[in-house]
Amino acid sequence: MARRLATCPALAHATLTLHGDLGAGKTTFVRHLLRALGVQGRIKSPTYAVVEPHTTGTWPLLPAGQVLTIAHFDFYRFTDPREWEDAGLREMFAHPGLKLVEWPQRAAGVMPPPDAELHIEPEPVAADAVSGTVSGAALDGEALPDSARRVWLNALTPTGQQLLAALRG
What we know:
Layout: H1 2-5, E1 15-19, H2 26-37, E2 51-55, E3 69-74, H3 82-86, H4 89-94, E4 98-102, E5 116-124, E6 133-134, E7 137-138, E8 147-155, H5 158-168
């Protein structure tokens, strides 16, 4: 799903919120998406830093010489709307680029509306998962996950509709 989303040019200026309980896989999804976009190096969770910036070396959907700027936000520890202004988040959201936001409900009322909402829910692994497949993906010797994931996207703007169309492929 992350690889398919990475093929959509509308992603270059989208705000995508990620919803799900602790451990649902929000940060893991972001890591897969960033890798699919060409981000190199370590991809840290922004849980303590609130935001982690990234850039792509090259993204074939941008003109030669341009990079995609990405801001990965995690508002889990966000407790006071004044933090929004103090941290300069209004300016960060005003700049072009992709914004990925975990725990957006903690910034309700101060964060601009997103283009799309990605929801992730764990699903129990079927008993036949021990055969080596979970949700159709070979495990190749990796430990079995504790659950599969149900993921869906709600498009809220025309940009979000383009993202949804890319997923439908």
